[in-house]
Design brief:
Elements: H1 4-8, H2 14-26, H3 33-36, E1 44-45, E2 51-55, H4 60-65, H5 72-82, E3 92-95, E4 102-105, E5 108-111, H6 116-133, E6 137-141, H7 143-149, H8 156-159, E7 164-166, E8 169-174, H9 177-182, H10 185-213
Parallel strand pairs: 2-3, 2-6, 6-8
Antiparallel strand pairs: 1-3, 4-5, 7-8
Helix pairs in contact: 2-6
The structure holds uracil.
The site of uracil (URA) has 12 residues, from loops.
Length: about 210
């Protein structure tokens, strides 16, 4: 059911607002990432969830399917959510950019991090998603999402796991699942431990937000 707030805003529900934004994204040419994409990757999950997860951007698998986090990092993200009894359906999942960033390497296109200009060009859509959903909690997955949402000078190793108040939401950043997958031995144990700790704290706030809704 629509909240009173949605009705007060003109009767448009969140699904409709997001569908319109997704339509705009699907034909977007605000940056050059539009030139090589197969599909845009808008976002999935529950638009009424108090928890929004923001990753970096689509990779090859996401570009092919139009869905966020479908590769190995996505499998790890599912495990991270499962550790606190959540699934993708309990949260809203999106990225800082909605098109794959890639560059030619050895005769094929290789994923690369999105550039600041690309993230800025796309921020209008992430801002639109945040406005439509108004999540109580935002979990940034990795540095680019944290720099976009929390602070441009955010340092993921130093500042992850801390809460920040951003535009009416509580935001935290943790390591990106792809970063965790690149670690080995003790570094892998440390990174996993940090992410698991962060997600427990996020879950505690998620529970509070659900309770506050009644
Ligand atoms: N990494 C991201 O940050 N987002 C995706 O959708 C997939 C991998």
């Amino acid at each position: 059911m629509d909240s009173l707030f949605d009705v007060a805003e003109g009767g448009e529900n969140r699904e409709e607002r997001l569908a319109e934004l997704a339509r705009q994204v699907s034909v977007c040419t605000r940056c050059d990432l539009a030139l090589n994409r197969t599909n845009t990757v808008f976002g999935t999950g529950d638009p009424y969830s108090p928890l929004m997860l923001v990753g970096e951007g689509p990779g090859e698998n996401e570009d092919a399917t139009g869905l966020p986090f479908v590769g190995r990092a996505g499998k790890l993200l599912d495990d991270i959510l499962k550790a606190v009894n959540l699934t993708r359906d309990d949260v809203y999942l999106t990225n800082t950019v909605k098109c794959r960033a890639a560059q030619p390497e050895g005769g094929r296109m290789k994923n690369r991090p999105p550039r600041a200009g690309e993230i800025n060009a796309c921020n209008i859509y992430l801002a639109g998603q945040r406005e439509a959903i108004r999540p109580r909690i935002i979990l940034c997955l990795g540095g680019p999402a944290a720099k976009t949402i929390i602070d441009k000078d955010f340092r993921i190793t130093k500042d992850r796991g801390k809460w920040y108040e951003v535009g009416g939401a509580l935001a935290m950043a943790t390591f990106h699942p792809a970063y965790v997958l690149r670690q080995r031995d003790d570094d892998l144990v440390r990174a996993k431990r940090a992410v698991w700790k962060d997600v427990q704290a996020v879950y505690a706030e998620y529970q509070k937000a659900l309770e506050a809704r009644g």
